[in-house]
Amino acid sequence: MPKSRTSFSCPVCQSGNYSILGPYVAKTESFKDRELVKCLKCSAVRMHPCFLECASEDYYSEQYWTDEKVVRRSPSLRVQAKARCNFMKPGISCDGRLRVLDVGAGIGYMNWGFREVWPNSQIEYTAIEVNPAAEKYLSTDPGVNYFASDINEIHGLFDVIVLSHILEHITEPVEFLLKIKNYLKKPGGCLFVETPNLDFRFKTRNEPHVLFYSPESLSAVLIGQGFKIIRVATCGRPIWKKRADGGMDSPSMLLNLRRILYKILVRSKAEFDRYGVDRQWLRVLCEIGDN
What we know:
The chain has 291 residues and is an alpha/beta fold. Helices cover 27% and strands 23% of the residues. It contains seven helices and eleven strands. It has helices at 53-61, 67-88, 109-117, 135-140, 173-181, 215-224, 253-265; strands at 18-23, 35-39, 45-48, 97-103, 122-128, 144-148, 160-164, 190-196, 211-212, 227-236, 280-288. Strands 6-5-4-7-8-11-10 form a seven-stranded mixed beta sheet, sandwiched between helices. It has a four-stranded antiparallel beta sheet with strand order 1-2-3-9, with no helix packed on it. Strand 5 (122-128), helix 4 (135-140) and strand 6 (144-148) form a beta-alpha-beta unit. The protein starts with 17 loop residues before the first strand and ends with a strand.
């Protein structure tokens, strides 16, 4: 095993054995001078060493929603929200009311998705978002029942908890999921998770993600914290582009032509392809297990 500057403990299985895949490619100073490593026991991939929590908070407080971004991204964000809710619907029993907790809600597009997919139900939507610029959208939306910037401000149990593109930013997923679990109704409550699928394969930069999940490692970390998988799916388009680790999924002109023809000729039946680029991601619906 290669020597590293700090000790390694896998956040999924706690193994100390790993291999280095290459440098962690970053532009922002707090992400630089790190490695992309793979756990040899469970195959989880992560940034190593992970930065301090304060550095993480500083970074995300500088990210913001602008009015221009909201207008430009609204159509695709609405489609994505509806697709996620359609994925959840077969596994969720609704008695006319759905109490939803959206962690890392952004500007609240999942609220719109739930109302579209369950039009005859009473949606009680609670949003958690640390980004100050998103507050003006969440605090003025009449469909948002409650808005908070800290999960410790939340009380009660929920029928559905949404973690959409959250876990890949969390340095300690075990602790985070155990805390989230306390807010899920049992029996009958469902946790929805969406993350990129090993996105170091298709991003030109690794930041700001600190963990890179596969279907196996995402299922493992959820099952390890007492969740039972209801449904899991790999979504998105084939990946044909240069990767942040320096590799290339389409090194030849012939494969690049295949990529272009695929996009033109193969009509996708999946609404989530509105992400618009060569990307893949994971969707999981789970509930608290019997044990």
